[in-house]
Amino acid sequence: MSSNGFVRVAALSELEEDTPKRVEVDGVAVSIVAAEGEIFAINDICSHANVSLSEGEVEDCMIECWLHGSRFDLRTGKPSGLPATRPVPVYPVKIEGDDVLVSVTQES
Ligand code: FES
């Protein structure tokens, strides 16, 4: 069961390092990424245009938008360079056993 808005989105064992997985949480598209020993949840839509970030590549805890190349920090959602100037929302993640849970009702 979910609590405090946390919803199960994936099994921990199915996530591959630096390989985003697109999920929907309460109607919000979210990209789940395992990187550097942690699990991150970032809104799947680039802040520059309507592009799915989960189709981009992950490196050094950054997810890259494939269209124009802005990279967003998985920890903060902040872009490291143009053309995107606004951050993408990131969400809190909880691990319970093999379950990955995300809450989109609060931004972390
Ligand atoms: S659409 Fe993502 S950087 Fe332009």
Automatic annotation (TrEMBL):
Every copy of the Rieske domain together lies at: 7-102
Q: Which UniProt keywords apply?
A: 2Fe-2S, Dioxygenase, Iron, Iron-sulfur, Metal-binding, Oxidoreductase
Transmembrane segments in this chain: where?
Answer: none
Would I find Oxidoreductase among this entry's keywords?
A: yes
In its UniProt entry, the species of origin is given as Streptacidiphilus jiangxiensis
Q: What is the lineage of its organism?
A: Bacteria, Bacillati, Actinomycetota, Actinomycetes, Kitasatosporales
The record, for InterPro entries, names:
Rieske_2Fe-2S, Rieske_2Fe-2S_sf
**Pfam families (alphabetical):** Rieske
Quote the protein name from its UniProt record.
Answer: Ferredoxin subunit of nitrite reductase or a ring-hydroxylating dioxygenase
Which GO MF terms does the UniProt record name? 2 iron, 2 sulfur cluster binding; dioxygenase activity; metal ion binding; monooxygenase activity; oxidoreductase activity, acting on paired donors, with incorporation or reduction of molecular oxygen
